[in-house]
């Protein structure tokens, strides 16, 4: 092994996160299924691995920013003979969103195989990722979390240790609970204002001048007003996060009526063909309910 940090998964979030590590002078070894996504990292001084096995062979600390649990298992070789060989002696840091139950099970399997595991889901979308302004919600043993913290600093404005494995993801679900509802709420408010012929620039001024002003409001309102949905956080990812929250709520017997409606809207937006554009495009699902006569309560 050399002194490089491994990073696998260079999608909408992973690529800017890895770039911030490289720009901070942290030596990286990166891999991505789509090779073209590695080129900005190569230009920033990172090494590009020839294979997943190459990353595990040459690093002892490895970041994963992967789309879901299935892909995470595939990369780790979980359920195969390759798993123990890959993870033994490694500190695996998963920054994606999975269920807490999955994360706890994965941590147990990695420990059994002789490795260590920290979950560090991040709160924020592409723009905060590019700016190194994410919030890391860490779950794991205190010593492991402390070891990972300096590597998270170039990616974040805040690193919060939430407790043992599972608690970081539960905290992310609580944050996402609010997020997916609030974005759907903004979309519905813009649709309401537009339906009454209000100037949407004036609506933005009113919202951004009051108590509801926030970075996400400033980012999303122009997209909603212009119907410009270049991806910051994709609609299908919003739906996946809503589903994770609703599953966790049901498992604990916790009511989530607003989330349930928001999840329906994101699912309808995906069905309209909006899966890989920004989740603000949930406004299309709201508008489609006009045509279907689903107005009012």
Silhouette: globular
Number of strands: 9
| Residues in β-strands, percent | 5-15%
Measured distance between first and last alpha carbons = 61 Å
| Share in helix | 40-55%
Stretches with pLDDT under 50, minimum 5 residues = none
CA radius of gyration is 20 Å
Query: What is the averaged pLDDT score?
Result: 95
The major pleated sheet works out as: 6 strands, parallel
Oligomer: single chain
Q: What order do the strands of the largest sheet run in, or round the barrel if closed? A: 3-2-1-4-5-6
Number of helices: 14
SSE class: alpha/beta
Q: List SSEs in N-to-C order.
A: EHEHEHEHHEHEEHEHEHHHHHH
Give an account of the 3D structure.
The protein has 297 residues and is of the alpha/beta class. It is built from 14 helices and nine strands. A six-stranded parallel sheet has the order 3-2-1-4-5-6, sandwiched between helices. Strands 7-8-9 form a three-stranded mixed sheet. Helix 6 links the parallel strand 5 and strand 6. Helix 12 runs antiparallel to helix 13. The longest helix has 29 residues. The chain is globular.
């Amino acid at each position: 092994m050399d002194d490089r940090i491994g990073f696998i998964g260079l999608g909408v979030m992973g690529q800017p996160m890895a770039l911030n590590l490289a720009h901070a002078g942290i030596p990286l070894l990166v891999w991505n299924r789509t090779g073209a996504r590695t080129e900005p990292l190569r230009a920033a001084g990172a090494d590009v691995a020839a294979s997943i096995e190459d990353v595990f062979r040459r690093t002892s600390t490895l970041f994963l920013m992967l789309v879901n649990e299935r892909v995470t298992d595939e990369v780790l070789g979980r359920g195969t003979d390759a798993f123990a060989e890959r993870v033994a002696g490694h500190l695996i840091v998963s920054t994606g969103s999975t269920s807490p139950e999955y994360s706890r099970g994965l941590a147990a399997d990695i420990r059994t195989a002789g490795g260590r595991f920290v979950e560090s889901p991040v709160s924020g979308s592409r723009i905060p990722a590019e700016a190194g302004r994410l919030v890391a919600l860490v779950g794991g043993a205190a010593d492991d979390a402390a070891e990972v913290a300096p590597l998270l600093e170039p990616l974040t404005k805040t690193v919060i240790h939430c407790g043992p494995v599972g608690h970081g993801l539960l905290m992310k679900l609580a944050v996402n609970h609010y997020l997916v509802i609030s974005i759907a709420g903004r979309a519905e408010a813009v649709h309401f204002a537009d339906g009454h012929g209000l100037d949407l620039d004036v609506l933005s001024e009113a919202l951004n001048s009051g108590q509801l002003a926030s970075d996400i409001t400033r980012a999303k309102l122009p997209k909603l007003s212009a119907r410009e949905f270049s991806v910051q956080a994709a609609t299908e990812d919003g739906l996946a996060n809503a589903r994770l929250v609703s599953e966790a709520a049901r498992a604990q017997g916790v009511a989530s009526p607003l989330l349930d409606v928001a999840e329906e809207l994101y699912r309808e937006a995906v069905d309209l063909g909006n899966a890989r554009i920004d989740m603000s495009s949930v406004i299309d699902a709201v508008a489609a309910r006009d045509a279907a006569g689903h107005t009012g309560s």
